[in-house]
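Quick illustration, no need to memorize.
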Amino acid sequence: MKIPYFSVLLSFVLLVSSGLPSANGACDISTLTPCGSAFYNSQPPTPTCCSRLLDQQSCYCQYLKDPRYSGIINSPNGKSILRACKVPIPRC
């Protein structure tokens, strides 16, 4: 069953706009907005997406502990995006 594109887009916008605070302010899931089409439409990640994933690498365990993000990041598609970007899959 395909999910309507607008629903997926709206879900992603809500997801990234909520942000995820950290003690040092460095973790901001909204910076991963360029990865939306890769996570939700199984498109290859863009160079910008890969760059942002690398920048946010230290935040993955924090994101994985948050139920709003864990299902997306820990999905088979999420892991394939990390591999495509040559970002190590976190072990938390």
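The helical segments are 5-17, 36-41, 47-55, 60-64, 67-73, 76-84.
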